[in-house]
Amino acid sequence: MTTRHFLTLLDLTPEELNTLIRRAVELKQIRNRGEIYEPLKNQVLAMIFEKSSTRTRVSFEAGMAQFGGHALFLSSRDTQLGRGEPIEDSAKVISSMCDVVMIRTFDHDTVTTFAANSRVPIINALTDDYHPCQLLADMQTFLEHRGDIKGKTVTWIGDGNNMCHSYINAARQFDFKLQIACPEGFDPNTELVAQNQDRVSIYRTPEEAVKGSHLVVTDVWASMGQEEEQKVREKAFAGYQVTTALMDQAEPDAIFMHCLPAHRGEEVSAEMMDDPRSVVFDEAENRLHAQKALLEFLLVK
After folding, report:
1. Does the annotation count 287 as an active-site position?
2. Annotation: binding site for carbamoyl phosphate
3. Is 264 in the active site?
4. What is the pLDDT of residues 263-281, one digit of tens each?
5. How far apart are CA 44 and CA 39, in angstroms?
6. What confidence score (pLDDT) does residue 293 get?
7. Closest Cα to residue 75, out of 99, 89, 57, 92?
8. pLDDT value for 224
9. Would residue 214 show up in a list of annotated catalytic residues for this protein?
10. N- to C-terminal Cα distance for the chain?
11. What local confidence, expressed as pLDDT, does residue 231 receive?
């Protein structure tokens, strides 16, 4: 059987993704009922971290434990990857000992090269280009709060970063309209936008982009590795903060999401983070349930 990987949302069909999201809801209910469900007993997840993390590490490690398996934390400081061992060699060795590998890194080519040389499924837990695991949690959260996202309008406000790229892929796979508000010079990948021009639009003000929106999403202005650009980005993104007043211009039942960690007072106001329309902590918890559904999908035959 061909090994399946999850490097972007496009690695699964729309039908598979929707089934996975609904399964995540079921797994959440199973956990909340206190039922023991251990489909991954004696299986090992290798977790390679070249970027720091809270939600990614906790959710994958807890998920494997709840599934009866084990998660192995590997940082670049502790492995030969950090000393220059070729990715191809590391992939062959690690995948010969573990059942699935999760990678959180900078260069997207790292995960694609690893996958090409692995005998087990590879999961992209974030690269500079994409963050598909977060989108699984976001789609689950919308489903739980507002139902099917198909045909809805989503607004992305801020940098055209890896989260924005994954929202573009999500618009295609989950069939919704995406309105992106970002300043010039911070647009998402032009080729990706062009491939999805039938459902993706770019605006230069949040006020324009938020009209008719059922979901408003943002992220930090300076992602990991861009800290030295903080001051420049603060100036460029002035006026792009998500506030309660901005949310008031979206649809009456619109909800707000943020992948966290959030910089209150920068990309989102403190008031908006605590607003009833904010579902950021449900969204964060759903990283656990959505990724358990993904692990089950990739490993349980």
Report:
1. yes
2. 53-56, 80, 104, 131-134, 259-260, 287
3. no
4. 999 999 999 999 999 999 9
5. 12
6. 99
7. 57
8. 64
9. no
10. 10
11. 85
What is the pTM (predicted TM-score) of this model? 0.96
Comparing CA positions, the residue from 276, 241, 280 lying closest to residue 257 is 280
As given in the structure block, the two tokens for residue 198 are: 């039938």
Retrieve residue 182's tokens.
Answer: 């970002």
- Which residue has 């358990």 as its token pair? 292
The dihedral over CA atoms of 262, 263, 269, 270, expressed in degrees to the nearest 10, equals 80
Average pLDDT, consecutive stretches of 10 residues, N- to C-terminus, the chain (301 residues): 94 98 98 98 97 94 98 84 83 97 96 98 97 98 98 98 98 98 97 98 98 98 74 92 98 98 96 98 98 98 83
List the structure tokens of 45: 């997840």
Binding residue numbers for L-ornithine: 162, 219, 223-224
Cα–Cα distance measured from residue 30 to residue 1, given in angstroms and rounded to the nearest whole number: 29
Active site residue 263: no
| 108 included as an active-site residue | no
CA of 32: how far to CAs of 62, 135, 289, in Å?
14, 22, 11
Rounded CA-CA distance 256/248 in Å is 11
**Which residue among 134, 140, 173, 241 is the active-site one?**
134
pLDDT at 79: 73
The full set of domains in the chain, from first to last, is: 5-131+285-299 (3.40.50.1370), 134-280 (3.40.50.1370)
Question: Residues 5, 23, 104, 289: which is the catalytic one?
Answer: 104
78: annotated active-site residue: no
Catalytic residue among 172, 258, 287, 289: 287
Q: What is the pLDDT of residue 86?
A: 92
Task: Tell me the C-alpha distance between 293 and 28, whole Å.
Answer: 10
The span from the CA of 246 to the CA of 255, in Å, is 12
Per the listing, tokens 């010039």 go with 184
